[in-house]
Design goal:
Structural class of chain A: mainly beta
Radius of gyration of chain A: 13 Å
Radius of gyration of chain B: 14 Å
Structural class of chain B: mainly beta
Oligomer: heterodimer
Distance between the termini of chain A: 36 Å
Largest sheet of chain B: 6 strands, mixed
Helix content of chain A: under 10%
Largest sheet of chain A: 7 strands, mixed
Shape of chain A: globular
Shape of chain B: globular
Order of helices and strands of chain A: EEEEEEEEEEE
């Protein structure tokens, strides 16, 4: 039981490049989330998915797209990376039966 | 507006002593939930404790307890018998409106436990 896994752990991009951050959970959770964490800003919600086949915008969705590929996987795509997207990205999931969200280990992304 | 405020950017505590981390919240919803998470220097987010707005008793999980004062809109985390491994960032978060799809996060408190 791996919980929530994220790949890659680290990534360096040049401005304008694209990439997809992968997230998978093996806890059969319905809801999944993408956050970014910046110094002095706390965690901010980018997108979330309440269930397979649905996605909704969070606080800071601009510049990102998401795909809920199936119940296990929720990916975050940067189509044209910008230096302002340098951050640590966390994926989380939640069961319908419980309140807490379980987090992945994070991806540290640097955009030059 | 829904908001979480953590007023202590940094705290120090001696090993084996108790420490209280402050959290105040603002919401007009009647149904909401409050969470505390720990983030050690390794970076992962670890769930510690949850309190629902209708829970009459303060939540406890081992050495962690949540001092919930509804009228004051505060949800302080109390760590008893601090250990060196408690050194970390601590985040307070709120789920409001009965819709626990989204959490609103505070900016965190950095706790250092001194030997």
């Amino acid at each position: 039981n791996a919980g929530v896994t994220q790949t890659p752990k680290f990534q360096v991009l040049k401005t304008g490049q694209s990439m997809t951050l992968q997230c998978a959970q093996d806890m059969n959770h319905n809801s999944m989330y993408w956050y970014r964490q910046d110094p002095g800003m706390g965690l901010r919600l980018i997108y979330y998915s309440a269930s397979e086949g649905t996605t909704d915008k969070g606080e800071v969705p601009n510049g990102y797209n998401v795909s809920r590929l199936n119940k296990r996987e929720f990916s975050l795509r940067l189509e044209s990376a910008a230096p302002s997207q340098t951050s640590v990205y966390f994926c989380a999931s939640r069961s319908s039966s419980y309140n807490e969200q379980f987090f992945g280990p994070g991806t540290r992304l640097t955009v030059l | 507006a829904q908001k979480i405020t953590q007023t202590q950017p940094g705290m120090f505590v001696q090993e084996k002593e108790a420490v209280t981390l402050d959290c105040t919240y603002d919401t007009s919803d009647q149904s909401y939930g409050l969470f505390w998470y720990k983030q050690p220097s390794s970076g992962e987010m670890i769930f510690l404790i949850y309190q629902g707005s209708y829970d009459e008793q303060n939540a406890t999980e081992g050495r962690y307890s949540l001092n919930f004062q509804k009228a004051r809109k505060s949800a302080n985390l109390v760590i008893s018998a601090s250990q060196l491994g408690d050194s970390a960032m601590y985040f307070c978060a709120m789920r409001a409106g009965g819709n626990n799809r989204k959490l609103i996060w505070g900016l965190g408190t950095s706790l250092a436990v001194n030997p």
